[in-house]
Amino acid sequence: MPKKPRGPPFPKELPLHLQDVKTEVIVGFDCLDDCQQSYEHFQANKSYEEEDYSNAIRLYNLCLKECRHPILLSNRAASYLKRKWNGDVYAALYDSYEALQLDPTHIKSRLR
Q: How many CB atoms lie within 10 A of CB 47?
């Protein structure tokens, strides 16, 4: 007998606060090199280290417009979890789920 999935089902549409991110983007692993070199990615990581999670999320959103990568999604999920606003846990879960869809072996996404 197959096991039933635990937790709530995932929505077919993005939540309102994430809909602006869903655009035509490159999906794959080649785009991360360009994005890692970008100013937005560097500043997002720096904002996360300085505990400015809202700014980190905003900058990860900009970077994700260029490149849909599991590392970026996982980093944004971590920022959502640290920020702890209403709905952030759900947004982090959605980002982790999407990261696992792109790369099922990504450990950090599985842990978040």
A: 19
